[in-house]
Design the sequence.
């Protein structure tokens, strides 16, 4: 689990565990793995744009996805150069000539906390968050199967805990990513697709998330162009309204062979034709 090429993702701590044995409370010394958190800087054109609390993996992909999902860049071709500097714990990015960051996109700090994570959408870039025109049909049965498989594949969660997971699924191609912040998972997933030159798959792809789905997370998927988003937990009211507004098929509480469709059920069929 200690990925030498991407940094340590956990540390071991001496702890005291409390448990009940028969009618007595017993305290025992033990060693536990605890998920690591780092503050990653994104330095764009020589200036620090943002600092993100994240898991110590996929640094460049996180930066790429963040810049794309925030509407700063439109494609990988907008990047002149990108490099992760381990000593600085920073991703150094030079944008293609002519790509300018608006002053309103100045330095911010994005937290990994469930209640305080947020994103900033520049009102001048609303056209980059288009209504989905996808007319494909997706198997409801396969969505249930993919969710079950996705949850089983969350390696870090099962071995250490403390992370969220996101899966991008398209025919013949999958990306699973884990991070301490749900929004980071989405950004890293987008960055991985960009680096792999697979962004065109998003138009017919599905995105699965292990936890609660909030509006700023769905906004990232609208930017990506994914027509189907599936959560193991609940969407918020703002998420549902956003999905309806942008024609996104939105499912929640998908687990144990069932789920709820909150928006745009017309894309779903009740068949399960393909192999997962």
Sequence:
């Amino acid at each position: 689990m200690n990925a030498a090429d991407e940094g340590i993702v956990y540390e071991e701590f001496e702890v005291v565990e409390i448990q009940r044995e028969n009618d007595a409370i017993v305290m025992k010394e033990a060693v536990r793995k605890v998920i690591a958190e780092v503050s990653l800087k994104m330095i764009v054109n020589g200036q620090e744009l943002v600092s993100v609390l994240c898991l110590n993996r996929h640094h460049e992909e996180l930066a790429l996805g963040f810049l794309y999902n925030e509407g700063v860049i439109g494609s990988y071709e907008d990047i002149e150069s990108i490099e992760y500097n381990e000593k600085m714990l920073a991703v150094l990015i030079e944008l293609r000539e002519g790509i300018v960051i608006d002053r309103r996109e100045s330095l911010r700090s994005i937290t990994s906390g469930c209640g305080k994570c947020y994103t900033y959408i520049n009102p001048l870039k609303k056209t980059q968050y288009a209504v989905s025109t996808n007319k494909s049909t997706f198997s409801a049965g396969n969505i249930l199967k993919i969710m079950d498989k996705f949850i089983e594949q969350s390696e870090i969660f099962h071995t250490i805990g403390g992370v969220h997971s996101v899966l991008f699924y398209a025919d013949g191609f999958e990306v699973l990513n884990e991070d301490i912040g749900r929004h980071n998972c989405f950004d890293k997933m987008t960055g991985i697709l960009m680096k792999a030159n697979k962004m065109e798959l998003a138009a017919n792809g599905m995105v699965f998330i292990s936890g609660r789905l909030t509006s700023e997370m769905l906004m990232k998927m609208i930017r990506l162009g994914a027509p189907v988003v599936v959560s193991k937990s609940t969407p918020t009211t703002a998420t549902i309204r956003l999905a309806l507004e942008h024609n996104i098929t939105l499912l929640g509480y998908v687990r144990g062979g069932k789920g709820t469709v909150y928006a745009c059920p017309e894309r779903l069929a009740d068949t399960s034709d393909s192999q997962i």
In short: Helices lie at 59-69, 140-152, 155-159, 182-195, 215-224, 237-246. The first helix runs from residue 59 to 69. DSSP finds six helices and 15 strands in the chain.
